[in-house]
Amino acid sequence: MGSRRGRAGGISVTRLRRWLLVGVVVMLVALASFIGIARYKARKFLHDLPAKMGIDIKSQANGFTYSQSVKGHTLFTLHAAKAIQRQNGKTTLHDVAITLYGPEGSHETDSIRGAEFEYDQNNGIVKAMGEVHLDLASPANAQQNPSAKRISVTTSGLVFTQKEGIATTDQPLHIEYGDLHGTATGADYTTSTGLLNLHSAVTMDGTQDRQPVHLTAASAQLDRNQRLATLRMALVRTGDMNAQGDTVVLDAGPSGGIDEIRADGHTSLQSGDGIRAQAPKLVAKVSEQNKPTLVTMSGGVTLSHPEGSGSGQTAVMHFDGAGNAKTAELTGGVTLDHHSPTSLDHLTADNLVANLAPDATRHTVVKDATATGHAQLHSTTTGKPAKTTAVAGDTLHAIMATSGKKHYVSLLTGSGSTRLDEDDGAGTTRTSTGDTLQVKLLPPGVGKSASSVQSATQDGRVTVAAKSPAKNGKAASETHATASHADFDGATGKLLLTGLPSVTGDGMQIAADRIALTQGSGDADASGGVRGVYQSKQNGDPVHVTAEHATIAGSVAKFFAGTHAARMWTSSSQMEAPVIEVDRSTNRLMAHAPSGSAATGTVHLLLPASATGKEKSSGVVRIVGTTLLYVPAEGVHLAHADVTGGVTMQTSGALLTARQAVATLSGTTPGVLSGNVQQIVATGAVNITQPGRTGQGERLVYTSSDQRYVLTGTPQNQPKVIDTQKGTITGTTLTLHSGDNNVEVEGAGTHRVHTEVEANPQKK
User: Fold this and answer.
1) What is the Cα–Cα distance from 4 to 520, expressed in whole angstroms?
2) Predicted pLDDT of residue 121
3) Residue 318 DSSP SS3
4) How much is the pTM?
5) Of the four listed, 193, 359, 522, 659, which is most buried by Cβ atoms within 10 Å?
């Protein structure tokens, strides 16, 4: 389908017409007229000649003339300069001229001339003693055009045996018809069957339609009754085209033209530019205007030309009324191969139909073609590395275009289980499937290769599988996707998926309204209702995510908020932020406001807390800030989450604010947001609020196992707790607990103060 010039096998209409109509028809009609004349003329003339001359004449007569008529219409006229009856019963005629007339009302005449004829009455044999010259009307057009070209035949040794009704000669025959001239050696004609046999060395040469014509055959036979002509081992060369076959049968119509041609055994058609079609059988239909209407090759067709080859069980070509090829069809295991300096193309299908038209140089080219039944077009570039593109479908339709002098496939559409495969030869591959496919191709020499894809569209149950090798610091990746519609842009290498698209790759699955994949990188860009699930390589807790927009570049995935914040959660932890970034190779996570934004309080983090002495949850910890950096557990180092930018933190027993906070998570699983909160360290303008009291300091350490809050400050700004009943408490270190009103106070040096406060004092 990606053929160059698409010449329908290189067989132009003009060449095919010449093969069908030129030398073969003229030669056989001429020879049939020469040997057979017309049966009612020749047989009657040879039978009646002795009686008309007088059997018992034993003398000579000069100026002998004889005519025979029926109902006033002259059948023939014989004139001899001299007639001699010999004692042996034979009669000799000298300088004989015989004129035979066509049907009444026609202008058709044939003439036979010879220096000497001999008639043996006893044996019923008529023999020409020297050369015989025949001047014959062309039966195909004599009645319609009296001035048409005539046929001239010269031979010798002609013998007619009256009893068997057989005329024979073993001498050479020479035929001339306009610019054509032919030869044969030996001939016989049986009047009872109407069979004419040319024994050997049949040839015809000359010009027709200003093109050279050459025909050869080992032998030939003409059945005048059935109007069939058969050539053995025939070869026809006209212009720059050859045609041949072991047996060629021509079926003539009533007007003398050819209605049908049948060839069997090693039939072939070959053009001067090396294009050849071969098959065991060939059938050609011809119109009354002597133009081809239908050509069929069957029994296993093979095609070859300098730039490729092809095959199929049957080839059929249809022609319009002017004899121009309009369609060509290959059926049954069709293969076509084409090679050029830039690519190798291979097509397979059950059937192929091409619409044809002549180009500016009068070569027949393919306008469009349709391949059906497991159709596949495979193209490989010849450069290094070799790039391959394969398109498949139940039906493929190609539209051709011309770029300069090059004929190429410009648009390829497919339907029914379509498939598009691409391989850049360096490890990057992509396969997509769908119900329908449309591919626009660049002209040869434009883009990366002779068959570069400009754009492609696939619809209906689309699936995509892509592989990218490790390069430029990125790990190898493999991506699988589904959608109802896909658009590929060859200039950018991006594949846009719409219609409930979903992409899975490297431990992450994403669904969105639109997903764009970048060829050769494994990168993706998703927008509109993004939903994803991330599974770390270390088999940690699955992470779920929702966002308005997401990008995946290598191992880094970024999620962006729309009208709602981007959200990420596991079975125990949750987070919301305008932007969430996760490195899938390290499980490091960042959350922050959009670049350039000074927004605060935009990151919301919800983590489970551990109970005393147990790694079980005892509530949750809520942390709000501007930015978040999460580092997973590694070796002996526990996972931790750093929150900055006006932090607000809420535990089961207190509400805290600070400039930043670091939460340490228990457990050693290196997943995202994995483990329970073991400790939180808040620093910078720390404030803590509990029922009935508040505290201030520069640093606070929260331990989830015992629900303890340790507040410290600086020598210049010591921590303090303001109690609604006991007033203000200060010290170097203040320790608070959830669930009671105790405050442990540490003063300067080693002095330790313990204060107890009654929660509900009673009057005594």
Assistant:
1) 30
2) 66
3) strand
4) 0.71
5) 522
Distance CA 328, CA 364 (A): 11
Strand partners, 408: 401
Closest CA to 619 of 629, 606, 628: 606
Phi, psi of 43 (to 5 degrees): -65, -40
- Nearest 5°: phi and psi at 24? -60, -50
| Spatial contact of 167 and 144, defined as CB atoms under 8 Å apart | no
- List the structure tokens of 596: 């350039």
Tell me, what amino acid is at 237?
A: R
**What pLDDT does residue 662 have?**
96
- Whole-number Å distance between alpha carbons of 46 and 37: 12
Q: Phi, psi at residue 698, to the nearest 5°? A: -105, -15
Low-confidence ranges of the chain (pLDDT < 50): 1-59, 139-147, 448-451, 613-617, 749-754, 756-764
Whether the CB-CB separation of 543 and 557 falls below 8 Å is answered with no
Q: Please check whether residue 80 is in contact with residue 94, taking contact to mean a CB–CB distance below 8 angstroms.
A: yes
In the chain, helix, strand, coil percent, each to 5?
5, 65, 30
CA-nearest of 560, 533, 530 to 544 is 533
- Contact by Cβ (8 Å): 343, 380: yes
Answer whether 610's CB lies under 8 Å from 678's CB: yes
User: Is residue 14 within a helix (H) or strand (E), and if so which, with residue range?
Assistant: helix 13-21
The amino acid at 590: M
Q: Which residue carries 């940690």 as its tokens? A: 540
Using only C-alpha atoms, what is the Rg of the chain?
50
Cα dihedral 467, 471, 474, 475 in deg (nearest 10):
50
498 contacts 531 by C-beta, under 8 angstroms: no
By the 10 Å C-beta count (0-12 exposed, 13-18 middle, 19+ buried), 133 is classed as middle
Cα 286 to Cα 273: distance, rounded to the nearest angstrom: 25
- pLDDT at res. 52: 44
Q: With the CA atoms of 328, 331, 334 and 336 taken in that order, what torsion angle do they form, in degrees rounded to the nearest 10?
A: -10
**Alpha-carbon dihedral angle through residues 518, 522, 528, 529, given to the nearest 10 degrees:** 170
Indicate the Cα dihedral angle 143, 145, 146, 147, nearest 10°.
-160
Consecutive H or E run containing 41: helix 39-53
Neighbour count for residue 461 (Cβ, 10 Å): 13
Label residue 535 exposed, middle or buried (CB < 10 Å: 0-12, 13-18, 19+).
middle
- Residue 30, classed as helix, strand or coil, is helix
HEC states along 92-126?
EEEEEEEEEECCCCCCCEEEEEEEEEEEECCCCEE
ω into 444 cis (within 30 of 0): no
Read off the tokens for 289: 């205007």
Q: What angle do CA 26, 28, 32 make, to 5 degrees?
A: 120
Q: Are 419 and 392 in contact (CB under 8 A)?
A: yes
The amino acid present at 152, given as its one-letter code, is S
706: left (phi over 0), alpha (psi -120 to 50) or beta: alpha
pLDDT for 210: 67
Instruction: Give the single-character DSSP code of 634.
Output: B
Element (H, E) at 16: helix 13-21
Which residues have a Cβ under 8 Å from the Cβ of 759 and sit 6 or more positions away?
A: 740, 741
CA 701/CA 141 separation, integer angstroms = 117
Q: Which residues pair with 348 in a beta bridge?
A: 335, 376
Instruction: Choose among 623, 616, 588: nearest CA to 675.
Output: 616
Length of the chain: 764
